[in-house]
Each structure stands twice: as C-alpha cells, then as structure tokens.
C-alpha cells in the first residue's frame, strides 16, 4: 500500500492529544518540514475515529490518556475496522502494559514525549513509507524478540 500521496508527495498526519499545547507544538514542528502535513487534530478518541474516517490520514500520532476513549481503544477500533492509517503512539507513559496492549492492535511505533523532535519526524516518515516499527529506547526492552 502506498501511503504517501503520490501526487503531492506529502505524508498526511492526524494529531490526537487531549492537550492543546501538545497539538500546537507538534503542528509547528511538522509545519517546518516540506513533506509532512497536519490534516487534522483531535482532542479525544471519538473525534480521532471520526477524523480518520473523514480525512484518511497516512499517519496518526496518538496519545494514550484522553477523555472518553483511550488511545488503546482508538487503536483497537481502527485495527478491527482494518483502517489503513499507521499509528505512532506519542505518550508520556512508558508503561509495559500500554505497550503490550498496543502491539496487539497493530501500532507501528511507540515514542515517549521526551524524544527529540528530529526523531519524531524521522519516525513519522519511516512509518508512512512502511519501513518497519519505531520504539523509544525505554520501550525496546519491553518488546519480545
């Protein structure tokens, strides 16, 4: 599956986080790139599912703890619906339980929010192109194999 818009070469990104300051910061970070475009923002899981269906992003940056529906529930819904969006979790939590639950829901990566901006950009690009998974060094120790 070709994720990147073949006409524009842009990776379409949906930001899902309940904190506006985080969404604004990520949007500004991605705006500095030529190949990544924020196509939407959601502040909760229900809105994330609606915007995924409506906007068809290539990559979703997904927070874990949100009102109404957690990131795990969002990932589960998208996985069950066979959504083509590639999910990159960007969370403040490095909890083994979250990571293992999300791996079973088909996520492409899990980064801790204290990662460098360059790493986040690299992870989005790589995931959009289907080049494997991305995990923070703190997370790698949880992953079997």
Task: Note down, in words, how this protein is organized.
With 145 residues, the chain is of the alpha/beta class. It has a single domain (11-140), classed as Response regulator (Rossmann fold, 3-Layer(aba) Sandwich), CATH 3.40.50.2300. 39% of the residues lie in helices and 20% in strands. The chain has six helices and six strands. The chain has helices at residues 20-31, 45-55, 71-80, 96-103, 117-128, 137-140; strands at residues 11-16, 36-42, 59-62, 86-91, 109-112, 134-135. Strands 2-1-3-4-5-6 form a six-stranded parallel sheet, sandwiched between helices. Strand 5 (109-112), helix 5 (117-128) and strand 6 form a beta-alpha-beta unit. The mean pLDDT is 89.
Q: What labels describe this entry?
A:
alpha/beta, 6-stranded parallel β-sheet, 6 strands
Helical content band: 25-40%
For this structure, the CATH topology is: Rossmann fold
Determine the mean pLDDT: 89
Give the N-to-C terminal Cα separation. Answer: 26 Å
What percent strand?
15-25%
* Shape call: globular
Order of helices and strands: EHEHEHEHEHEH
Instruction: Give me the Rg, rounded.
Output: 14 Å
CATH architecture: 3-Layer(aba) Sandwich
Low-confidence stretches: none
Could you describe the largest sheet, including whether it forms a barrel? 6 strands, parallel
């Amino acid at each position: 599956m070709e994720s990147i818009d073949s006409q524009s070469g842009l990776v379409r990104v949906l930001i899902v986080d309940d904190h506006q300051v985080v969404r604004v910061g990520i949007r500004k970070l991605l705006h500095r790139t030529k190949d990544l475009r924020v196509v939407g923002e959601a502040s909760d899981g229900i809105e994330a599912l609606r915007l995924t269906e409506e906007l068809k992003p290539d990559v979703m940056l997904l927070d874990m703890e949100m009102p109404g529906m957690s990131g795990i529930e969002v990932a589960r819904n998208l996985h069950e619906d066979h959504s083509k969006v590639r999910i990159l979790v960007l969370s403040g939590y490095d909890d083994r339980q979250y990571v293992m639950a999300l791996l079973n829901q088909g996520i492409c990566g899990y980064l801790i929010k204290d990662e460098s901006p360059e790493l986040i950009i690299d992870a989005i690009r790589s995931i959009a192109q289907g080049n494997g998974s991305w995990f923070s060094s703190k997370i790698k120790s949880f992953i079997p194999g």
